[in-house]
Amino acid sequence: MKSDEIKNLFAQFEAAASVLEGVECWSARELQKLLGYSKWENFEKVIQKAKDACKNAGELTENHFPDLRKMVGIGSNTERAVDDIALTRYASYLIAQNGDSRKEEIAFAQNYFAVQTRRAELVEQRILEFERVKAREKLSQTEKQLSGILYERGVDSQGFAVIRSKGDRALFSLNTQMLKRKMGIAENRPVADYLPTISIKAKDLAAEMTGLNVQNKDLTGQTKIEKEHIDNNLAVRKMLTNRGIIPENIPPAEDVKKLQRKLAGDEKKLLKASKKKK
Fold it and tell me: Model pTM?
């Protein structure tokens, strides 16, 4: 997500905020539009999932989802009352958590409502961290699927490790051990936990290509699959280097495990802060 897109969404979410009995909140009807839901009926389903999550966290839903009536225009200068809900920041966060994070509005909201200090720069930084964690999780899923595909075609776990390592060598022009030394990564930690987002996505793309081509070309055995994976990583490397991006020269990023703990901790802080405001 680009910086100007983040700032635009930030301004929209800030403008929609209001204070009800001293508590910062958002109208569910307004949030529906901000999150890209065209029908209230569909958005109500997401709200219900958020209420269930609130209960599971040991919270009273009425403290975070109080019902309201709202007047809306229906044309010809007339209005009618519709059901609405005042959503605390915590309630809004839970709603965003139950949305599709592939949508930019949802991904933004997940991070916007988790940040207590209302500053666009903090939200933008958290979104970058969030995207990196999600990219790492996606790579893990892709590699797990690829491992399953390869196992069915005669490649065991040891063979898969060799294939993955040779793929790294093709993508970074360094073997896994050399890359770890260059980036200062401990021997017992995966390289991907310290790669920047673009490198994680590059590995993921190459692995996706290998999984698809192994099936489409009906490849079997380690030798043929190994060549396929190397070729795919070389193709991804060529695409990057043609744009002036040298994967092995990009500095390492913060340990993704620390970021996961940080993002999880934000939710606890959010809940704690919401309790103090009651």
Answer: 0.67
